[in-house]
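S.,

As promised, the pyridoxal-5'-phosphate run. Input:
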Amino acid sequence: MTDRSTSPVWHPFTQHAVQGEMPTIVRGEGAWLEGADGRRIFDAIASWWVVTHGHCHPQIMAAIKAQADRLDQVIFAGFTHPPAEELARLLVDMTPPELSYVFFSDSGSTSVEVGLKMALGYWRHSGEPRRRILALEGAYHGDTIGGMSVGERGIFNAPYEPLLFDVSRLPFPHAGREQDTLAALEKACRDEAVAALIVEPLILGAGGMLIYPPWVLTEMARICAAHGVLLIADEVMTGWGRTGTLFACEQAGVAPDIACYSKGLTGGSLPLAVTLCRAEIFDAHYSQDRRKTFFHSSSYTANPIACAAALANVRIWQSEPVLERTAALAAAQTRGLDRFRDDRRFTNARQIGTIAALDLVVGDAGYLADIGPRLYARFLARGLLLRPLGNTIYLMPPYCSTADEIAAVYDAIGEVAGEV
Ligand SMILES: *Cc1c(COP(=O)(O)O)cnc(C)c1O
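Predicted complex:
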């Protein structure tokens, strides 16, 4: 038990006054974590959505060790290094041809901040005063001030409200009401000087694993293009195979103007993020006038060891049948969900690629309802890392998870639902 009498660590998204036992993890392998006490925990949420191929993947670990022997860190302004150059080229090759420049940062949140700054810089340097940002209701784009501003407002950011900038919200495209979203987008593009629309493509993650169809994204992209509005795709969660394709935008045939990738970029081994953009956006900042410089950096921008880990990840994608693995995982998820489709204890069974979710029917839903922590504790007691969003139970496992392991998670979901 970790409490304030024994540890000085202040954990993220953790209310220490009610936090129960906190396992100390000393080892990770594949889809499994191992505690200091020797217990094994199945990582059914990929350690907060970051681990793709599995923990401590041998090729990624080897690349990290090799790079650590050569170059640990170097300033990235005025200097460059091979892992970043090579990675940037590969990323440009793997993404839509329209995306031709790569800006490095350290986390999903910073990749979003960079995307927003790129969009506003583009309009300012192009001499057109567009400043309005559009976002989807229920969105999550990170916990920095810009990320919170474009994300859903609520208990998570209420104390910081005075710092958050105003954005226009589009209703989430719920099934049957997609036209409301598209109509709101059309209207905003006509009525306001819209700089950009930021979206999580095909699925809202932290907002409750809410899925919408590719055609809606296609239409949103079309409307944006018709009005010259930049489309920012926040693929921080959806990227690197989660939704069944390398990137979610592929399913909609959409090439965003700006794309943010982070979580699976290093296979989940080290923090790194990139924001890719179209040449027009780079070009708007390209000038003999130094005032048009893109003024953004963080100390560890494009850290060589993190870039080497990302390169190893990309090589795994290039040389191994990763999409076959994600398809097999997706099939295992479908079989698991199917067991509960007619089960009245659950509702809204849904899936996109490797991500599956279902809602437990309870009186008090919502993130702060005590059902979330109660489920969490019961799953943990069974050796499962599942972290429900309120009454929404979701699985987002590493791609090395076996069909039997996934089936066992669904066994546990059925048992736990019977207990609570
Ligand atoms: C996790 C997440 C972020 C923030 O990423 P961090 O690395 O936690 O800063 C941003 N956008 C989406 C869609 C995410 O899921």
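The chain has two domains: 25-55+324-419, 71-319. Residues 71-319 form a domain with the Aspartate Aminotransferase; domain 2 fold (CATH 3.40.640.10).

- D.
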